[in-house]
Write a structure and sequence with these properties.
This protein is an alpha+beta fold. It has nine helices and eleven strands. The mean pLDDT is 95.
């Protein structure tokens, strides 16, 4: 049996770090948004007792360092079963080291695919628990849409859908290590934190203009992305309502109300960078085709 799932990328409309927990993890305060840029993950059961993983991107790990592989192992652990034979193939479109949740999306797709393939009928709560073990963004990448995510990312609240808009994303040649980003944050002498409550009130009341004004990402203060200023300038010159880095970087996204403005911005940036995308918000993260 085989299932293919399109797994959406995400951007952070707001990202703040509010504390360091006793276990060393950072407590986050973020609003994440699924966007229509997808990896396609195909999971097939086999008669072997091993996992085989392939990927269109040869730079990805093909063993248990890959989040999709980890997701399968944690799934079998959760149901109290030895690892069963699987072929997992990932067709990559979401750029890596971009802050767009590509690895988390792949893991989310594997968890949901196995639940269907094996007929385990796990609850949403159980699927989220498995995802939490794999990585902080995986629970969101199972549900998707527009959500406030707290603590390690596993505490979530659904927010009103983002207004109809168009999103241009640029991934510069530079990548950013998440570990490096958090290390830089920890060593920073001073951080300017965003108005989280103001942003949240705007989001819950669908006040799009105020959301854009209060949007912020604390990692922009501690991560230097060489082309970020230039990218944001091009976006703003094309009437972007918001131009900001997502996650720990390095991708930068702009939000546009006018499609023609977004298309003009896309064309301008495409002349400068190889990894440029134009997309829209999505109301969920995973799209299944059996």
């Amino acid at each position: 049996m085989k299932i293919s799932i399109k797994a959406a990328a995400k951007v952070n409309l707001l990202l703040d770090l509010t504390a360091v927990l006793k276990n060393g993890y950072h407590s986050i305060y973020t609003v994440m948004q699924s966007v229509g840029l997808y990896d396609t993950i195909t999971v097939e059961t086999t008669d072997s007792d091993q996992i085989k993983l392939t990927c269109s991107d040869a730079s990805m790990p093909f063993d248990n360092r890959n989040t999709a592989w980890k997701a399968a192992e944690f799934f079998f652990e959760h149901i109290g079963s030895p690892v069963r034979g699987l072929n997992i193939h990932i067709e990559k479109n979401i750029p890596s080291q971009a802050g767009m949740g590509g690895g988390s999306s792949d893991a989310a797709a594997v968890i949901v695919a196995l639940n269907k393939l094996l007929g385990t009928d796990l609850s949403e709560e159980e699927l989220l628990k498995i995802g939490e073990k794999v990585g902080a963004d995986v629970p969101f990448c199972i549900l998707g849409g527009t959500r406030l995510c707290l603590n390690k990312g596993e505490v979530m609240a659904k927010l009103p859908n983002l207004s109809d808009c168009h999103i241009v994303v640029v991934k510069p040649d530079q990548g950013v290590s998440t570990k490096e980003a958090y290390s830089n944050y920890d060593s920073a002498q001073w951080i300017r934190h965003p108005d989280n409550e103001g942003f949240l009130f705007a989001a819950t009341t669908s006040d799009f203009d105020t959301m854009c004004k209060k949007a912020a990402n604390v990692f922009e203060q501690v991560i230097e992305v060489t082309d970020r200023v230039r990218i944001k300038a091009v976006m703003r010159n094309n009437n972007a309502k918001l131009a900001m880095m997502t996650g720990s970087g390095a991708a930068v996204f702009g939000i546009f109300l006018n499609k023609k403005d977004a298309e003009k911005c896309y064309a301008s940036l495409k002349d400068l960078f190889s990894s440029v995308y134009i997309t829209e918000p999505t109301k969920k993260a995973l799209f299944i085709s059996e």
